[in-house]
Amino acid sequence: xxxxxxxxxxxxxxxxxxxxxxxVSGSLFKIYGMGWYRQAPGKERELxxxxxxxxxxxxxxxxxxxxxxxxxxxxxxxxxxINSLKPEDTAIYYCYADISRYIDSLLTRTEYWGxxxxxxxxS
Length: 123
Known about the structure:
The protein is mostly beta strands and 123 residues long.
């Protein structure tokens, strides 16, 4: 069973910084990419940033300049550094992974999600 476990969320004053981490556990064949999405109250889940196995990153416009994604598919980890936190960054942040694993001897590629970690920007 594959599991994604996030850590690092919390309450931060506006202008502060936060680092989120995610690690993948369980039996798998390959990780093709990992990243972060977020969902604010009353809004749809949106992409924050993703990183591919080759190191290419895709960062949403709102995240450019303040959010930095880093990851290591071999170590099965992805981090998100958030600087200059704004109140509108308040959301549940979800770790995401694009993974292939053998299920009943068949190599299957699937998206996996963590449970989410709350980030709150407030004084």
